Amino acid sequence: MKLVILESPYKGNNYEGTEENIRFARLCMHDCFLRGEAPFASHLLYTQERVLDDKIPTERMLGIEAGFAWKEKADATVVYVNRGVSKGMHLGIRKAIVQGQPILYRSLSEYKKATKPAIMTITGASGVGKTSIIRRFLREQDSCLITSFTSRSPRPTDIPNEYAYNVSQERFEKCNADFLWIVSAHGNTYGTPKKAVFNAFSQFGSSRLRLMILTPEVLPLLCNRLTEFGDYEHRVVSFYVLSPPEDELRRRLNTRGDDEATIRRRIDDCKRWDAEALQSDIPYVFLSNNESDVGIEKAVEQMCVFV
């Protein structure tokens, strides 16, 4: 049997919430067994009476560290998302990534599905396949992009409705209050309209899913601007596409026609961005697109778990 570490929430907002999380975790374990897996759920074992007290920080950390020790022996980490992804789950996910362990996101079909988010963001360095993943996702789901504004001209690789092009600097300055942010990159100016984002966020659960392709520098700005609505983590799901191995990344950048200096810089950027994402407080859902033939399909499949 395949050895898997099971990640699901434990502590709820109250006693009833914790009890429901425990019931949910047991259902998740049953699902693993039906898949031919041998699951290990430290949050069910270690929190039993007279073992460890999750309310005592030092004992909680002991439980987390012991779970990490078991993770080193497992074949994969499986994450069940019906009841959200807690901070403890995020710790386990990031530890698995550092150890090079596969992450599989799942949703129990017989359990109440998590409410569809209002906005999905996707972040990752150049060459990881963000655009290809979004193109595939748009074909499979009832979703659309939130259109941003840019001073540059269209490029063949752009997704339809990704940008409104050739916006003058004068217009950016004159309409500054209409944008959530205005940023500059590689000699071009970019801005995301406030109204489009706020409308999508406030119509939570009642409108088409909106997608945004964002850089790591901009995503915290989105988090800060939308916290006024409350319930941020349920309304926004932020994906981060991890960089593939260096040889695969180099192959992709070569295919794009980048010169050696650009390739070297982008490879260094990928390493830096990935390291910062794994240390970030942003509750990223990490995706992998390592396989050139089926990586995009698998990444989209994992995104669909959250819809």
Task: Provide key terms for this protein.
alpha/beta, 2 domains, 5-stranded parallel beta sheet, Rossmann fold, globular, 42% helix, 307 residues, 20% strand, 4-stranded parallel beta sheet
User: Which fold name corresponds to the CATH topology of the largest domain?
Assistant: Rossmann fold
Percent helix = 40-55%
Q: How many structural domains can be distinguished in the coordinates?
A: 2
What sort of overall outline do the alpha carbons produce when their principal axes are compared? globular
Radius of gyration over alpha carbons? 21 Å
Q: What is the CATH first-level class name of the largest domain?
A: Alpha Beta
Spatial strand order of the main sheet = 6-11-5-12-13
Distance separating the two termini = 30 Å
SS field, number of helical segments:
12
| Main sheet overview | 5 strands, parallel
Strand content: 15-25%
Structural class: alpha/beta
Elements, N to C (H/E): EHEHHEHEEHEEEHEEHEHHEHHEH
Low-confidence stretches: none
The H-level CATH homologous superfamily of the largest domain, spelled out, is: P-loop containing nucleotide triphosphate hydrolases
Q: Overall pLDDT, averaged?
A: 89
Describe the structure.
With 307 residues, this protein is α/β, with parallel strands linked by helices. The chain folds into two domains: 2-106, Rossmann fold, CATH 3.40.50.450; 119-304, P-loop containing nucleotide triphosphate hydrolases (Rossmann fold, 3-Layer(aba) Sandwich). Helix content is 42%, strand content 20%. The protein contains twelve helices and 13 strands. The protein has helices spanning 15-34, 42-45, 57-71, 87-98, 130-140, 169-174, 194-202, 219-226, 232-235, 246-256, 260-279, 295-304, and strands at residues 2-7, 37-40, 76-80, 103-106, 119-123, 143-145, 148-150, 163-164, 179-185, 188-193, 209-213, 236-242, 285-288. α1 (15-34) links the parallel β1 (2-7) and β2 (37-40). α10 (246-256) crosses α11.
